[in-house]
Structure formats: structure tokens, C-alpha cells
Design goal:
With 209 residues, the protein is an alpha+beta fold. It is 28% helix and 32% strand. The chain has helices at residues 5-8, 10-13, 40-61, 110-123, 154-167, and strands at 19-34, 76-82, 96-104, 133-148, 170-173, 181-185, 198-207. A six-stranded antiparallel beta barrel has the order 1-3-2-6-7-4. The termini are far apart.
Length: 209
């Protein structure tokens, strides 16, 4: 049976309202970058992730890495911060620092990833293939909600999350080291009108000190 994340992990990716949950250790193919995501470099970063993810997906489907396993590729995710501290209405996009990623099934390993990356490097060209990394990370307790609409209005949904954080006596803490929040892109901005976009916005949290 094909694993469909939209069904099997609906609570993780499709919250109907601001939701608190605890996430386990997960695998990711990641790539770090900096600068305005509207510039071409960001698109090249995103494009570097998918060939390796699809190489792994086909290897699992064909049974090359154990029992055959079929699944839908997970949505693009990104964790974000800035190098100058700017946020919200004063955000300086040129100062953005990010790590984008695609989640991978639990049965895959770093060795599987490295083999798939080598195979892709032999067939395709992208300046960032060699910079891809395999990371295993447990985010723990998070607060999240779906933002409907363009990225420019995300502050409205973040304000809702901040209210939930305050009401539950929590505090936001960095995720994956230094990043202040996570975004999961449920729609493709290249094919979806901004007003119809859907993005999961997530804070990592803990009880307030």
C-alpha cells in the first residue's frame, strides 16, 4: 500500500486550527542558503533537492533497499532566520538565512542518501548537489497552523501562533540550531496563485522559564 503523507500524517501537515504536538526524530535531505528567496539562487537550491529524493523513492519502489516500499514525496520545508535580526514588517529579505529540506522515510539511511546523490551527480548538473546533507532531527514540541494566502501576510498567522504560545505559558525556541521558525509548503508557488497558497507555519516551543 502506498504511503500518503496527506492521509497517514494528516495531523502533522494539515492542521485545521492552531495545534500543539510533539514530533519524533525524522530524516531529511537538507541544503543551506542565504539571501532573498525571490532571487534565482533559491530556485536552484530547491531544484537540487528533488532529483536525489526521487532517486531514493525509485530505489525503494523497486526493492533495491529492502522490501519494496512506495510513498508520496514529502512537501518542501524550510527553516528561517536573518543575519541582521529583522523580522515581520521590517524584514530584510536580503539578510535571510535558510535551510530547505525534504523529509525522507525512516527506513532510509545516510549511506542510502550518499549513494543516491552520487548517482544523481553522474547524470545531472546542479551547482548545489555536492552541498546536500543528510540530517536526522527531532523537533519535539511545536505549535503550528496553516497560513492561507501570500507569504507577505504570514505575520497574521504568526500573530495567532504567538497568542497560543502566550496563553499556554510557552516560549519559542530555535529549531535545527539557529532558525526561528519552520515553513512547510503545501502548494507550489510556481503553479499556485499567491491568494490560494497554503503554508504550515511552525514554532518549536517549551514551557516558559
Amino acid at each position: 500500500m502506498k504511503h500518503e503523507w496527506r492521509r497517514a500524517e494528516k495531523g502533522w501537515y494539515l492542521p485545521k486550527s492552531p495545534t500543539r504536538l510533539t514530533l519524533p526524530q525524522l530524516n531529511f535531505i537538507t541544503l543551506t542558503g542565504a539571501g532573498d528567496p525571490n532571487q534565482p539562487a533559491f530556485g536552484e537550491h530547491v531544484a537540487a533537492l528533488y532529483p536525489v529524493a526521487y532517486q531514493l523513492r525509485m530505489a525503494l519502489k523497486r526493492g533495491e533497499l529492502g522490501d519494496p516500499y512506495e510513498y508520496t514525496v514529502y512537501p518542501l520545508e524550510g527553516v528561517w532566520t536573518t543575519t541582521d535580526g529583522s523580522r515581520g514588517a521590517t524584514l530584510n529579505k536580503a539578510a535571510l538565512k535558510y535551510k530547505i529540506m525534504l523529509r525522507q522515510p525512516d527506513r532510509l539511511t545516510a549511506a542510502d542518501f550518499e549513494a543516491a546523490r552520487d548517482q544523481v551527480l553522474a547524470k545531472k548538473t546542479n551547482p548545489y548537489f555536492a552541498d546536500l546533507q543528510w540530517e536526522t532531527y527531532a523537533e519535539g514540541t511545536v505549535i503550528q497552523a496553516i497560513h492561507h494566502g501570500p507569504f507577505a501576510t504570514e505575520t497574521e498567522t504568526f500573530a495567532q501562533l504567538q497568542q497560543v504560545v502566550a496563553e499556554n505559558d510557552l516560549q519559542v525556541i530555535p529549531t535545527m540550531g539557529e532558525y526561528w521558525h519552520r515553513e512547510i509548503y503545501l502548494t507550489d508557488p510556481r503553479r499556485t496563485a499567491p491568494k490560494k497558497a497554503k503554508t504550515v507555519l511552525r514554532y518549536r516551543v517549551r514551557p516558559r522559564d
